[in-house]
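Weekly sync, protein design subgroup
Attendees: M.S., D.O., the rotation student, P.L. (late)

Item 1: inverse folding check
M.S. brought a backbone from last month's batch and wanted to see whether the design step gives back something sensible before we order anything. D.O. pointed out we never logged the input encoding, so this time it goes straight into the notes. Structure tokens as presented (220 positions):
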């Protein structure tokens, strides 16, 4: 697959707790230069980043991140705030304890509430696959679909493991036809990226791919 085609699927990501304004502007510059799908950044930088990039690049942010145990009302408020500040896309983390308690109806209601708060913007739902059983992942495919989210996403990148090929295969098998797949974490090479896309992922949450492309260009 052409490198430029891979980059079109990348959410170029910087969610470090020590990220500075200059760091955020740097990845925005990289996102615009390489035409990535978006940059995924902390909510506190969304307004400044949107002002900086205008319509040249989509701005994605995270809510309920990385643990997912904020209240549903808090997550909805975070989504509203993000959208009002200029976010084009929102990635939310589910309450994983609710999965363990089999509170699937509550999870579905929360996702639907956040989706409404997004006011038409893209909503991706992070289920943190490394903490779930296969049965729980399958159930979450159904919940995310029923709740009306746009994407199901594997990982925060802050868990014990990131995306796996098997997770994307499972999502592809069980998620609804209107729900796309985002693989995040565990993407270390262009080969990894290409494989995830071939298996059915539509987005890749990573900072590594842009770094690889920069290294390739520097080596020329």
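Designed sequence read out in the meeting:
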């Amino acid at each position: 697959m052409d490198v430029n085609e891979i980059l079109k699927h990348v959410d170029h990501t910087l969610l470090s707790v020590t990220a500075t304004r200059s760091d955020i502007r740097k990845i925005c510059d990289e996102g615009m230069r390489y035409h990535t799908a978006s940059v995924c950044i902390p909510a506190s930088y969304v307004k400044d980043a949107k002002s900086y990039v205008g319509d040249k690049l989509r701005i994605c942010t995270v809510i309920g991140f990385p643990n997912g145990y904020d209240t549903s009302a808090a997550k909805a408020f975070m989504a509203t705030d993000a959208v009002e500040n200029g976010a084009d896309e929102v990635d939310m983390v589910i309450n994983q304890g609710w999965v363990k308690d089999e509170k699937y109806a509550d999870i579905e209601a929360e996702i639907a509430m956040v989706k409404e708060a997004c006011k038409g913007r893209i909503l991706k739902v992070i289920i943190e696959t490394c903490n779930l059983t296969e049965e729980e992942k399958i159930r979450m495919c159904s919940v995310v679909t029923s709740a009306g989210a746009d994407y199901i996403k594997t990982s925060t990148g802050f868990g014990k493991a990131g995306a796996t090929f098997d997770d994307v295969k499972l999502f592809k098998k069980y998620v609804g036809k209107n729900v796309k797949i985002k693989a995040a974490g565990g993407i270390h090479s262009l080969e990894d990226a290409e494989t995830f896309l071939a298996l059915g992922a539509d987005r890749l949450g990573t900072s590594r791919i842009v770094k690889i492309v920069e290294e390739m260009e520097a080596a020329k």
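Discussion: The chain has a mean pLDDT of 97. DSSP finds ten helices and eight strands in the chain.
Action: P.L. to compare against the previous round before Friday.
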